[in-house]
Amino acid sequence: MISIVTPVYNEEGNVVYFHDEVTKVMKGVDMDYEIIYVNDGSKDRTDELIHQLADSDPHVRALTFARNFGHQIAITCGMDFAIGDAVITMDGDMQHPPELIPKLIEKWQEGYDIVQTIRTTTEDAGPVKKMTSAGYYAFINAISTTRVTPGGSDFRLMDRKALETFKKFREHSRFIRGIVGGLGFKQTSIEFEAPARHAGVSKFSMRKMLHFAMDGIITNSTLPLRMAFYIGVLAAVAGVLVILHVLYCVIAGQAVPGWATMTILISIFGSLNLMGLGIVGEYLGRIFEEAKNRPLYWLQDDTASHADNPYRETHDHL
Q1: Distance (Å, whole) CA 99 – CA 21
Q2: Rounded distance between C-alpha atoms, residue 112 and residue 117, angstroms
């Protein structure tokens, strides 16, 4: 069996079309399958639509979060509930082409445990997004011991044994691409060109993208902590040189009122202190979140629990 996990957030214009396209592809694959939709607190008709799909299609299971938990947590939830021998995760906006599914399965049947897709380009991506994306991957790979493939997406296939290992990673600040990259196992990749969204607009605002980027950096490297220390050392050396210069001016009788020097020093060391505290604060904040040991998510509804849902009859052992 193949499990297809799809997180959805305000995708009323995409989810039915996506489902039809995936169903067409899976009918051409000689395997049983399930499609798990995880509604990440949508405000539109997405939840209603995936429940309709679950009522009409025995291959569908709809999970509904009690609130918005984020894209990475939604993917994790679907993988927790998946029962397939292999699990494919993909977005429901048609930027992850369903026609690639047979190729992922083919690579899995060749013996690969993880088949990762790599975006070579995105149709509706502007030059700024392409440049910042390339710079981000270069930076994170420079500071991390775990390589994150440039252009890698959350469109991938994982074998059951790789999935069971992945499910042991329960941190709240999740960067799945980094986790999967560090799992090991036998991995391969497939390149693709991401088309434009079928409908709607991207849900990744600038704020969300920056938060996602920060999660990727902090969860994969402690180098920012070391950088704060090294910058502090350089600042201390610069401070000593400034002090020596001031002493020389005093001895040579060239001293002037020291307000300018004091202002410069306060500005330099004040900013460095705040920067260092900010970096340490980010790590402490993550530690605080993990120490609370709260669940990653909780559900408002699961269509498999409905007595009249065909999914319950087909997968009653759940």
Answers
A1: 8
A2: 13
Confidence of residue 317 (pLDDT cuts 50, 70, 90): very low
Query: Cα separation of 92 and 199, whole Å?
Result: 10
pLDDT tens digits, one per residue of 112-125: 999 999 888 765 55
- Evaluate whether 14 touches 200 at the Cβ level (below 8 Å): yes
170-221 pLDDT, tens digit each: 888 788 888 888 888 999 999 988 777 666 565 555 565 666 566 666 666 6
- Among the listed residues 122, 124, 145, the one whose alpha carbon sits nearest the alpha carbon of residue 134: 122
Taking the CA atoms of 167, 169, 172 and 174 in sequence, report the sign of the dihedral they define.
negative
Residue with token string 């039915």? 16
The residues, ordered by sequence, that sit 6+ positions from 222 with a Cβ below 8 Å of its Cβ are: 283
pTM of the entire structure? 0.69
Q: Per-residue confidence at 302, pLDDT binned at 50, 70, 90?
A: confident
